[in-house]
Amino acid sequence: MNQATGAPGTSRPGGRTARVREAVLRAAGDALADKGIGGVDLAEVARLAGVGKTTVYRRWGTVPGLVADLLAEMAESSLPRARTGALETDLAALAGLILKTLTDERQGPLFKAVIAAAASDPQTAAALHRFYRVRIDEWAPCVAEAAARGDVPAGTDADEVVRALSAPLYYRFLVSGDPLDPDTAARAAAAAAAAARAGAYA
């Protein structure tokens, strides 16, 4: 991670630096989940993390800078993609992971807070876009592998298949308030796989 002169989260620190980063990001995530981004204060995050206020201001600078690093850390630590050998079960694993994240008592409110902040803060929006770009890059190869096996048409847009799976889950999470449950996740995965097989994303 760069210091004040660069974007947070651009390298992975070690030793005490890593412990400080972990403590600060954990405190920031808790504050986001509890209060939303408007309730996050750098001095309070420093107090909760047990580190000096100067350290937090010097290394992260602003709340959006802290949120950007939090998203970078979440992308770094998220589970790797499934390798089941079949598109349907790979996509079902992704849908299950999204469901688990969005319904988690801490992660769900945290994502809502970040997504809400991204609507009005360009730095938070850019960090959120990077987070999802990392996750799409992680999971898109399962579609490319399905194309190589002949399970979906050649030239299928793998990124679009991943987006198509994710979209109905996020719609329920953010817009409709309809239940998010394993059946919903399974349907989203099956629908994305069926559409990919039919050539909808070719």
TrEMBL record:
The keyword DNA-binding applies. The keyword Ubl conjugation does not apply. Gene3D superfamilies: Homeodomain-like (1.10.10.60), Tetracycline Repressor, domain 2 (1.10.357.10). It comes from the Bacteria. Pfam families: TetR_C_11, TetR_N. Residues 41-60 bind DNA. PROSITE patterns: HTH_TETR_2 (PS50977). Keywords: DNA-binding, Transcription, Transcription regulation. InterPro entries: Homeodomain-like_sf, HTH-type_TetR-like_transc_reg, HTH_TetR, Tet_transcr_reg_TetR-rel_C_sf, TetR_C. Residues 18-78 form the HTH tetR-type domain. PANTHER family: HTH-TYPE TRANSCRIPTIONAL REGULATOR RUTR, TETR-FAMILY TRANSCRIPTIONAL REGULATOR. This is TetR-like C-terminal domain-containing protein.
